[in-house]
Amino acid sequence: TGILQTYELNIEKLDLIKEIERPKSFKCGTLGASQIRTNTIAIGDFTGKLMVIDFEHNVPVFEVDDAHKDIINSIDGISGGLSINCGAPEIVTGSRDGAVKVWDTRQQNSPVACISANVDDDSGSSAGRDCWAVAFGDSYNSFDRSVCAGYDNGDIKLIDLRNMSLKWETNVKNGVCGIEFDRKDIKMNKMVATTLEGGMHVFDMRTMHPTKGFVSVVEQNAGQALGTNGIISGAKSTVWAAKHLPQNRDVFVSCGGSGSIRLWEYKYPSNRVKKDSDNFEQGVAGTLQMIHATSLSQQPVHTFDWSPDRLGLAVCGSFDQTVRVLLTTDLNLL
């Protein structure tokens, strides 16, 4: 079964105030396309169903039973909350069936955009890879918007939704578990992609070279465990997600498969653009500085969210089925 629980933070404890149950297990959810006073959440489940649930009244306000042919691995939303002048509220989903679909909840049953591999006519099977991660970005006005998708074979594809075209693609040589732009509602600035075996790639998205694409800085051991003595060591471990601080887009947290999380700050170079030998502009990668690391669980921390209202307040979930509320101090000094 799929269970959606709503908690209220009451001093030093969490009080369960609402619980919703559905027959099929939930895989992912987002509040990104939800307006502040609507109390709705978009959810993808293990059967490929997409639904938007009003969790205050326990009623679905949008449902597509066969949104995908298989499990919906990842979901993201945009233009909810306080976002203004950045287009219509939309939801993007990525699935094991290889498809990436964009949904407008005002349009029932069919997506407004679908990006998928060609289907083999003889076998009926898709040549597409398993899509593990999706994210909106570059939505700085009412017309422009992009979606970035990450796949199990390390492919990353950036799709321009305005022109419905593939803008850029690369391969990071390991399955992409998480993708996030530092801000969704500005011109593309930076994007973080996290992978299996401890990989973390921070791309400078401001300058695209015609052949080399976007530059990046890579951290290969971002998922390693934190020992009792505070020393980071051990085998490489999956980095499940990266989440940027809403109040400072150059600070983000990474979630490790070892049960640890790390706080990072991206440092820009003195010049972000240079000319190559052919006089084409190309980006210059910055550097990553680890600010802090702590161990929260013996199991992977796979999801994390910052509070947009309270600097440093956050919540995370892990495979030990525990929800933890965190407080990070001195972030205003970074």
TrEMBL record:
Gene3D superfamilies per UniProt: YVTN repeat-like/Quinoprotein amine dehydrogenase (2.130.10.10)
InterPro entries the UniProt entry points to: WD40/YVTN_repeat-like_dom_sf, WD40_repeat_CS, WD40_repeat_dom_sf, WD40_rpt
Pfam families for this protein: WD40
Keyword terms, alphabetized: Repeat, WD repeat
rRNA processing as UniProt keyword: no
Origin superkingdom: Eukaryota
WD repeats: 91-113
PROSITE patterns: WD_REPEATS_1, WD_REPEATS_2
Transmembrane segments: none
The name this protein goes by in its record: Putative wd repeat-containing protein 92
